[in-house]
Write a structure and sequence with these properties.
Length: 539
Amino acid sequence: MELKSIKDVRNAKKFSFKDAAKLLISLAFLLLAIIYASMHTGNLSASSSNILIVASIFGCYMALNIGANDVANNLGPAVGSRAVSLFWAIILAAVFELSGALIAGADVVTTIKKGIVDAGLFSDSQVFIWVMMAALLGSAVWLNIATFVGAPVSTTHAIVGGVAGAGVAATGWNIVQWGNLGIIASSWVVSPLLGGAIAAGLLYIIKKMVLNKQDKKAAAKKVVPILIAFMAFCFSTYLILKGLKTIFSINFSSAVLIGLVIAAAVFFITKPIIIKTSDRLPNSRRAINWLFNIPLVFAAAMLSFAHGANDVSNAIGPLAAIAETLESGLGQMEANIPFWIMFLGAAGIAIGLILYGPKLIKTVGSEITELDQVRAFCIAMSAAITVIAASQLGLPVSSTHTAIGGIFGVGFLREWLMRNSLKEEIVTDHKKIKMKFEQKKLEDYKMELESLGKLKNIDPLFIKELITKINEEKRLIARATETDIKTTKIEKKAMKTVKKHEFVKRSALKTIIAAWLITVPAVGLLSAMFYYTLRGIML
């Protein structure tokens, strides 16, 4: 989003009944979380039970803010392209966010829980618990501020910075596993680049195979079912590997084979539907865009599932670590994530999305670049593939940067294609001019030959040389399409004008980079401050 949109906050209407209702629902959720957590304290002492309940409140507060801020990146393209209404987009995302968190969120939780700070360096389990609580609270407060001003920031950056900052405050710089943190940080750089590259590649392929064809309908009948089948393959393979491993163990090659079978079934089911639908549509770009509504909604659902699997860790990773420490101590960090903790995080994300998500959904969907269904599909699909791959590797990547990287990839590709199109037009004009010039010269030679033929006593060698020149001109005409073109000053000025035309707001890129640079240290400082506050209260 643009920093200028922050001024909209100053012009916002006063606190309304609707705002009060949202606040009351949020507080009711936190109250239910207290009751739900108190039911799972087990054999803990009274003090340990109280700590777990307070940590659960912090985790749920964090989850609410993730739903309010980060999920916008999943729904923005679909809503911005008007493929689905805001209401149904929220319902769709809430269901799949909840499913992804509960089914496939454990691996990334483990990364957050054990991969940022070295739990073995904590001499006191209480200190470790305070660090995790401070990280949750610091991250949640930062996200709350960002959501209030309308800035989509990375919740992954927030929790990583929070855990690292509170850990350093507790025991010093050596507590942070800088090697693991470096790997995680590198994924923040790779994810937007990879998301942008995949989105641009998908859009380029669709343009070449469908949109630039003379018969767009016939091309769409062939390509769209393949795209839907490919999404089904990615989604089903990931679900088999991640979500069903608690039921039965299956290796990667077997999961891929099953995914291919499911993709084939989806292809044969959806192909007649696409054919029947496209037969009723005109052969236009706008109609083909409408045909992409189905795969776009599917891609948005897939991305929501992947986001739930990946980003639930930001809310409950520290909470799971606290629960394990209270129950088993610092030396036992291998236990499975309790279902009740997973459920709290997933429910918090869904509720936060429903209550506070629409504002940033509109920002991501319409204020960065102009989107239609085809472009939005490419963005959603690229983000889904990137986040799913990262979750498979246990890397907590930034879905914010991945999705917006896809938006920039699509926008930059459009700019590049437009500039190339103008250049091709200029080259074509030059070729036409050259062809006309060469043909004019050829006609002059012919006229000269005819006039000479009427005269007597003309040297035959002279006529032969003239014929040779005519043949040479013919060869020049044939080679005209291969001649280097030198643009005029006016044409160069036109090229520069096109280069200045932007399909994507560069200021949005600056905003994202600034948020990336600010979030980690800001949350680190907040979490360090909260650590000292909690330690002072507890002691």
